[in-house]
Amino acid sequence: MNTSEAGATRRVAPLSEWPIQTDLLGRLREDIASGRVPHAMLFVGEASQNRRFVNFLSQLLLCTGEPAPCGRCAACAQFESGNHPDLYVLDREGTAVKTGQVEALQERLKLRAHAGGRVVYVVHGVDEMTPVAANRLLKTLEEPWPSVIALLTAGSVRRVLPTVRSRCFLFPLPQAGSAPWDDAMPEERGAEPEGDPWFASLIEPVIQWTEILLKGAEPAVILADRLVRAAEDAEFSDVLYVLAMWLRDLMHTSAGDSRHIRFGEYRAQLKEQSSMTNVAELAKAVAVVLETRVRTRSHVAATLNAERMCVRLQEVFASVYGHRRPL
């Protein structure tokens, strides 16, 4: 994965004005403001949430005014009238996006942008594309044109072709009406945690590891080694998935919300660990883990990825340690 050609810094609407607000989207806003825009992004959530957010982001990326989206420039006027020449949207023809639609898009992307700036293309429902269409789209993602931005949506990340998924920055979107601290967790396993041996083999090591993290008893490099070794018989990205779910449970417990607890059989540990921190810190920690998981799928070495993550998590939980820093 990479970013499109670096552009000039610009003023972007504050996150409070975005239709959906999560820590990950806050970092995306910072990247856009600094001119570093990912060339391909995958948004995973409810169809209505996906469309709502991608519509906003498309206008923001095409806007030529400030703060973007300004709603006043010529680009915004074209966008709002539904005829911006540098925006292409592929939607389902029948049950899925077809190969012919992707081929037509590829031909258009060979041309220069009408306004001399960015071209944005949107593909809805990449998790429901035909295999041939998905592989055709992959060619576009593997060899991106400069200043061309891809915004993809899916209802389920596990149904997205893995090679397509690995070329994108992943942004889970929360359900409509969810709590403001509730960053979405992509559902990648069909089974629930209860009784699933895959979860059972990972959750207890993750709980023990989180306790060590919150106590600040070990330096980042040792913490990272512990986590990588916990993944000895599993994919490291799977360990990060379970870690993110556990931190999310801690977040709900800290907020007094017992309705969305996934690992209810560990209520004693949830109560103990959640009492050591707070909702805001846990929300940031979930975002850090999910970002790390995206990098892991981009073939960044697990150990290096884990060390970076542990340093960032210790920064998030600095108030937990007080004046005592991890060794």
Automatic annotation (TrEMBL):
Source domain of life: Bacteria
Gene3D superfamilies according to UniProt: P-loop containing nucleotide triphosphate hydrolases
SUPFAM superfamilies cross-referenced by the UniProt entry: P-loop containing nucleoside triphosphate hydrolases (SSF52540)
Annotated InterPro entries: DNA_Rep/Repair_Clamp_Loader (IPR050238), P-loop_NTPase (IPR027417)
GO biological process: DNA-templated DNA replication
Protein's name according to its UniProt entry: DNA polymerase-3 subunit delta
Organism name: Alicyclobacillus macrosporangiidus
